[in-house]
Please model this.
Amino acid sequence: MGFYKTLLITLIALCGFFLSIELFYRTWLYFRNCDEVCYNTAFFTKLDALNRNPVYGFLAADPILGYSPVDGTFVVREPGWNGAEITIRQGVRINPNFVPTSPDGPILVVGGSFVFGDWVSDDETWPAILERRLNRRVVNGGVSGYGPVQAVLRADHLLKVQPYSLVILSILIVGDLPRDRYVNFSRFYRPAVIREDGKPRHTTVEESGRIVSETFACAHPWIPELFFWSHIAKRFLLKLGYDGRCNSITHPKAATVDESLEYLIERFAALPVSKAILIQDPRYSFGFSIDEARKIRDAANHHGVRVIDIYDSLRNTPLIKILKNGNEVFADLIAREIAPIAQ
Model:
């Protein structure tokens, strides 16, 4: 009994010691992250130190694209979504409350979360609003977390299912282009653009999976999960490539962003349909994304692809209007811009 009593006391003392160190470190992080006012009390009130993105039920693994939407009706109650309704039919998001009557050919829009419509319900996405403005079918082929090359691969797949009169590729400035260098998103693998033998190509999902398996913490997630409460452990886990769910592991042979952009435009220009690139600038990037937008325009012009850049139209739009009616503003602008090419 004496041995077990000593062991118990030692374990309690060690736990107390580690908890004290953790509390001290959290306090240091709290004051270190203070600006003029200290308000981020999550360092004390939130037990989980790892910021793990939720896995949404409307996404499932795909052997070619990495992951894609699955058919069904979903209500997302995660923070920020406010019970948004998601309706997926034949692999794309639809607005079941509106049926266009125009006989004109459908328009396909592909891209990431801004196209898909994270945080809003089916009738509030900008493709759904554009559909109402045109009274014409606009297929929402966007998928949360997609990189532009991944989106073009999806467009190529959807074009084999049915013809479209126009394909619009949305690229969100600042956030989208680097995604093509990553081999994973949440628990899913994804194609990554790499440079091999002097030229770029995209990996298969299987190849990307092997890269993830070579990252020890990501291949054995139950180990870092044992330390989910510790900011001290988080600091070391980040150095091992684990950020809570290993969301963005860069391929060791990843192409540069400029190389990925050139590869992207070449793939998109080769699609056998009328096409356009939509450059979307989040408000926070205004004034900081001119160079990236210019590179996209130059590459697109070189390959004869039309560009729709919302920056010039939005920079003079009152911020309050964008915040209140952002998707409607986007849809109205796009409706005007595509009129000459969407016949």
Q: What stands out?
A: Residues 2-45 form one domain.
